[in-house]
Amino acid sequence: MLAAGCVSEPQGEKPSAPDKSQAQSVASYPLKAGSTLTSWQTLNNNLSSVNIQNLVDTSFGKALEKQTGVKVTYTHPPTGQIAEKFNLMVASNELPDVVEYTWTSYPGGPEKAIKDKVILPLNDIIDHYAPNLKKTIEADPELSRQLKTDSGQYYVFPMLRGAPSQLVFQGPVIRKDWLDELGLPVPTTIDEWYVTLKAFKEKKNAAAPFTARYAGGRWDVADAFIGAFKTSNDFYLDDQGKVHYGPYDSQFKDALTLLRKWYQEGLIDKDFAIPDAEGKILDNKITSGISGATVGLLGGGIGRWLDTMKQKDPKYEVVGAPYPVLNKGEKAFIGQRDFKYNPGGSAAISASSKNVETAARWLDYAYSEEGKMLFNYGIEGESYKMENGVPKFTDLILKNEKFNVQQILSQYTKQSGPYLTDKNRNTNTYKQQDNAAQVWSDTEAAKHSLPKFISPTPEESAQLAKIATDLSSYKEEMFVKFIMGKESLDNFEKYQKQLNAIGVEKVISIYQGAYDRYIKR
């Protein structure tokens, strides 16, 4: 970093807005001795699993303090109570300097959070105190659009992904060792999946050939199978950029008809709607032979299951399968795919902060070359080393005898949060994971996914708040009933009318307007 000095505001003195005529200063790290901040952010579950309760106690937290010179007091809301604790904190009017949160979910959106004086607009702050983030934004006009409100206000230090391959991490997973034993290919079409699941049931005695986790009030199949019918399990965009709600589409009935048939024939887990927030039920079924296929993650799915079974059953193998289509050779209509900017885990500076410059410079460190190495790889010589100019994780990370890869990584790096993921970072430990990411990427999700960072107006957000929960709850209730046969599919039009009565057309209209404004930013 070029050193041009760092002039921090006196401790406890709330600064005025940066002077627009003032030249941007580049910070020299570590910052001024005695610099302190408070930060509210979730704690990675992998840390809790190894009995670490605060980020300050990790190797990453200690290194960040040493390198930035900022002593941070962290507050971590309990898992499962994040929204509740956030709302209580906002209501109390006692916010820390920095808050990591999904600010797009704030009632009324980020614009309302600024108007409510909960967080600060960051345009001038980035201009003067965050040269690394500013450089990143200026190099990518599409990213700049993603990070703004409709009025042009930047509001967070964002979580960013540095390579297209990092945007896809979930999709269909299947027992490859079973396929090989049965002489079957990895299925690509709905018909091939039917043949495969029947074989799993009849020849492998799988009690639940296909299963998936049920959590957060919904069955976590993403758009697997459903997308084959040119629709989605959520809101999406058609080829003309028009917003639709998949479960309201007439073709959604075709997807339900398929899933109902498979359920009747015992190809879908009869207990699929049992809540499984931590995924332990799914883990047991996919590693014990109860199930042969699911929808899973790269690390917390394929990687974990291969780790679990490599000693118990060396022949065990799971691989990623393509998102199914109706006809051979078609490209999947939609699948899981994130955008470069991930609203979750992004950080805002609270309007009550008395340490604005320190907070901005501390957050900006993550986008510097030195900061990116710490956030992505940890400590050189311990968690990574350089090989031909490329950082590589050491055996401490990849072959740790005490912790799995995700557990040890969470101690040395920031698994999610406001920083730029390095394009070379790869925490996969199996070729099956790399292959799955490629297979799952072969969809039209980039065209059909509705961005998470569109901004309804405060008035529209108030309307959404009245409708969204009822809409989602009714949809999921009927989704389960249709599949299980507790509700006849003859009543699908009646179900559509009820969605309309709840307000689905209004929600579609609001999202359409928000998306149109986003395109014009």
Automatic annotation (TrEMBL):
**Highest rank taxon of the organism:** Bacteria
Is the keyword Lipid biosynthesis in the record?
Answer: no
**Signal listed as a keyword:** yes
Name of the molecule in the record: Extracellular solute-binding protein
Q: Which UniProt keywords apply?
A: Cell membrane, Lipoprotein, Membrane, Palmitate, Signal
State the Pfam families in the record. SBP_bac_1
Chain intervals for the UniProt region annotation (Disordered): 1-25
Give the InterPro entries listed for this entry: Bact_solute-bd_prot1, SBP
